[in-house]
Amino acid sequence: MILSYEGIKDAAAWQKAGISLPAYDPKKLADDTRKNPLWVHFGIGNIFRIFIGGIADKLIQDGLMDRGIICAETFDFDIVDKIYDPFNNLVLAVTLHADGKTDKQVLGSLTEALKAQPKFAACWTRLKEIFSSPSLQMVSFTITEKGYALRGADGNYFGYVKSDMDNGPANPSGAMAVVASMLYERFKAGKYPLALVSMDNVSRNGKKLRDSVVETVKTWQEKGLVEAEFAAYVEDEKVIAFPWTMIDKITPRPGDDVASMLEADGVENMKPVVTSRSTYIAPFVNAEAPGYLVVEDSFPNGRPPLEKAGMYLTDRKTVNLSERMKVTACLNPIHSALCTYDRMLGYTLFADGMHDPELSALARKLGYDEALPVVEDPKIISPRKFLDECINERFPNPYLGDTSARIATDISQGLAFRFGETVKAYVARDGSAAKLQAIPLAVAGWVRYLLAVDDEGKPFELSPDPMNAEMTEQLKGVVIGKPETLGVKLKPILSNKNIFGVDLYEAGLGAKVEGFVLEMLKGNGSVRECLKKNLTGRQ
Questions:
Q1: CA–CA dist 135, 194 (Å, integer)
Q2: Nearest C-alpha neighbor of 527 from the set 331, 353, 364
Q3: Which of 391, 400, 394, 388 has the alpha carbon at shortest distance from 349?
Q4: What would the mean pLDDT of 112-116 be, rounded to a whole number?
Q5: For a Cys staple, 421 with which of 13, 202, 328, 379, CB 3.0–4.6 Å?
Q6: CA dihedral for 337, 343, 345, 349, sign (positive or negative)
Q7: Interacting residues of 254 by C-beta distance below 8 A, sequence separation 6+
Q8: Residue range 239-273, pLDDT digits in tens
Q9: What pLDDT does 538 receive?
């Protein structure tokens, strides 16, 4: 049983193993898609493969879409070489239910994988061909929050972004410049309309994508690298639309236990790999069953009937409220608050941390007491029911195998949305956020986590994050057991609006966060004691 076009022809073996196969011919689908591309996706990792790929698969299975998704990668090219090409772009989707049951299905909706960089000449030529096609309707993205960023915490362009701005559309490297370059190809081919759809966990993600693409194009125009007419084309949302979305499906790293289960079923070569860019990926993807995708219905060149596969198609305001509900109240802030404490208190799985009395109290206080009161109901999804599902069913799911180390990856990139928006809401409503307790504890936990020493004094490895080096340098010299070594080191961190979206001192929280960090620096066990004292009142 080999995951390939040829390997899935023996349907009986797969059926015996309880693995569903496509009811369509994936190879024919790929050929049809190549001739008339419909949908391109950038950022071809795990959540895309099982969730977006699953949505496309359902539409194809039901006869509602006759082409698949073309996959483009700008960051980690090992994914193409190790996971897509060897398996004919097929995905083995494994759904892990909270009762221990699993669903297994082969998805054939991903039709080709391209390395989206000029140095890969054949891929680059093919990408230009795709974007020049009048049939292309949408380009979606799951490139993580940092994929849209043009500047660092200091406000200056990243080095590669500066090069992209100087080089123009001929030789881009970053995702935003690659997209802008492809739009230039589409402009030259016929000024065809298109929807660029961010599906990342970023508040107002469509605006963030649009701002970065437009800034890139405008800078090129100012440098004389593209025409003013091209800039106008990109800025016209009736032609180039940037719909806003809310996406939600917890998709952990591929589990070794899942790989063993599949190989015991007879499926070969299922072992996960770690790429040179530290991506954990496998021929299969494991994820929870719940999934939400709310999309602004703005597609100037048409779209597949996405609502027939479970997407919510609605207006921008409703999308924004749904995204804010998830990112600032119900899911992401609790993830960010607890994952750092998990690392310090010795929990590997996020589900295990949810059974810890202090961490459970932190999750509930943050969600129910602090975030929900300032979140507007989007109506299509109840915030209270959504939070109940997260707290009581999704987060404690022991079969999901989601690690706190994964959740902590790139954590700095989301703090402004996950905590800062709630802080700003209290400042707007009350004049100060000083009454908050869980959010400053969450921020203090992130600071203490950055020292990379757990509550027993044992070192651990920080999860990858673009700000790790900078934050570690700013906290250099801070010693656990010697709170006085903290000094004034937190001032530039807690006042940095690029990190938190707000100056925490101006919001009335800076001193409180400092106090919590000082408590956690007293010595071994002080992280636990700080949580007990400030959450449950226990000493």
A1: 10
A2: 353
A3: 400
A4: 98
A5: 328
A6: positive
A7: 46, 272, 280, 281, 282, 284, 285, 286
A8: 999 999 999 999 998 999 999 999 999 999 999 99
A9: 54
